[in-house]
Design goal:
The protein is α+β, with helices and mostly antiparallel strands. The chain is built from six helices and twelve strands. It folds into two domains: about 10-60 and about 140-240, Outer membrane lipoprotein wza domain like (Outer membrane lipoprotein wza fold like); about 75-140, wza like domain (wza like fold, 2-Layer Sandwich). It has helices at about 10-25, 55-60, 110-125, 165-170, 200-205, 230-240; strands at about 75-80, 85-90, 95-100, 105, 135-140, 140-150, 155-160, 165, 180-190, 195-200, 215, 220-225.
Amino acid sequence: MRSLQLSHSPAGRAAERQMSHVVRWLLAGGMGLALAACQTRGGDIPYAPANFPPSSFETQGIMQEDIPLGPLDVVEVAVFRVPDLSGKYQVNARGIIEMPLVGSVNARNRSADQLARELESMYGQRYLRDPQISVRVIDGGQQNITVEGAVLDPGLYPVRGTSNLLSALAMANGVDPQNGNPRRVAIFRKSQGQTIAAAFDILDIRRGRMENPTVYPGDLIVVDGAGTRAIYRDIIQALPALAIFSNL
């Protein structure tokens, strides 16, 4: 496997940072893409396909009870026959929820069921006899999307639940006005065990000619631009087992 060589100039370091995010995504099951620098449509990725499915986060249910809890999650705690202890509680930025009587409880990286068992133990030690507690996630907290390519600030960005493509690009401070091609923006998504892709024209979205698509936690968004093609070719050659488009 050959190494990836980049310049030590500021542009080279920026490209290296950009690759680090994409490589992590590709290693998790992503794909490569062929992008050109001119502001035109085209390429192998279909534009705004009608059957572009939601991500596995949506089809499996972001709120499913076995997903580890994290900051900004809101849970509903039900303590059987003790309504004063029951209610809705939000996980704070440190992964903690504040519960009556027992105080701070660590919820980070615990499932809703694991949190319920912990609460039963804490309340059972001092306050209740054989407590029966259930916990249900009613509002998912932060998950990440990745925005790469010709944007001003590529990287990982948190989203709550779902967002849309224009909002995702705004978090990355928009398409690079010098090098970006707003007419070719690709969304790569993992759905039902496969990686799928669709392209979108930002200019047409802003003009109301194309739908502003929903983006989900785990999506990879890549804006076409100068240098993007070479970066992806190096990544794909370093990961030969991946399926790639024929014109790379």
